[in-house]
Description:
By secondary structure, the chain is α+β, with helices and mostly antiparallel strands. 56% of the residues lie in helices and 19% in strands.
Amino acid sequence: MNSPYEWQVGWRYVRSGRAGRRNGFISFISGVSMFGIALGVAALIIVLSVMNGFQKEVRDRMLSVIAHVEVFDAHGEGLEDWRATAQLARQVPEVQGAAPFVAAQGLLSRGDAIRGAVVRGIDPAEEAAVTPLAAQRPALMARLQPGAWQIVLGNELARQLGAREGDAVTLYGPGGTVTPAGMAPRLKTFTVAGTFDSGHYEYDSTLALIHLEDAARFFRTGGATGVQLRLADVHRAPAVAAQLANTLPAGLLVRDWTRTNRVWFDAVQLEKRMMFIILTLIVAVAAFNLVSTLVMTVTDKRADIAILRTLGASPRSVMGIFVVQGAVSGVIGTLTGVALGLLVAFNIDVIVPAIERALGVAFLPGSLYLITRLPSEPLASDIVPIAVIALVLAFLATLYPSWRASRVNPAEALRYE
Length: 417
């Protein structure tokens, strides 16, 4: 019992209110306030965890096809020695793998079907070091042999073209060849060596892979136009790209995956911020319910306040008693919400399927969405600010009622006692 008496009295008021000894309605309102804070905090944690899970799922599928960082010639020409550029890049400790590539755009046609495509020339022997797709499908990538004019298509692109393994497709490149009859388009017939499914619609519907030497010959680049790099930590890509931009020779551009997919990346961050603001307002509403609870408590305990004042308690001490009472309610609500939110976020892969079975519905049908399960990734960088904001709001909600308690006139309060 060495704690200040303000803490002891405030805690006693919390316990007496919860037990309903003085006023059952005040106890009910106090419980509703704590429940509202807990529910708001839990909802905020669950929603942000699910959004993090979606972001991670899409990011992983995206990075299964593309590299973390790309280094390429600023003028779009071929690199004289891509191995020397890769060697310089490997001097950065975060760089774990490097592979050459040729990037270009073209048109693919088969019969009456024509589709735009991003054509990437790769070296199958090196590509596995930078993209999980090549590492997971080595047999498919091995079919891309120089001079064989083989092509690997995204499954959605192949479906749009009506092409299957072994079919012939025609690739049209930019520019053309001058002939006596005029300008002839640059085209070449490729044989479909197979298809891939990355789970990301944008790449499955636009990406085509051919051998590096075939790409250099068809697009007349003279060799690789850039080097792809894979890092130990995907989140370090912007920092590593900035470091490489300062250390690599002039004339080379460095681009990380967040800039390659900047629109998507910015949209996700904006959505997360807006959801955070909207759900924080829910927590704020619940926290400020404490105002009404404490105002009613102050009214109910005017006689107690007057007795404390006559015994020598200062207005500051009286104010501290009710700040403690409100703060304890905020802490209990916040901690309960954090526990509930984490419990649901870490077990959402069990909870959602159980709800789907009970209701006989599918929240994420495979025919409409890329994924069929609800992902979740709770992050401390989200949870800690949520808890701090809830506690701050609860503390702010106690200031006005506590100030009113400190202004109670003892003589006036005890007149009819």
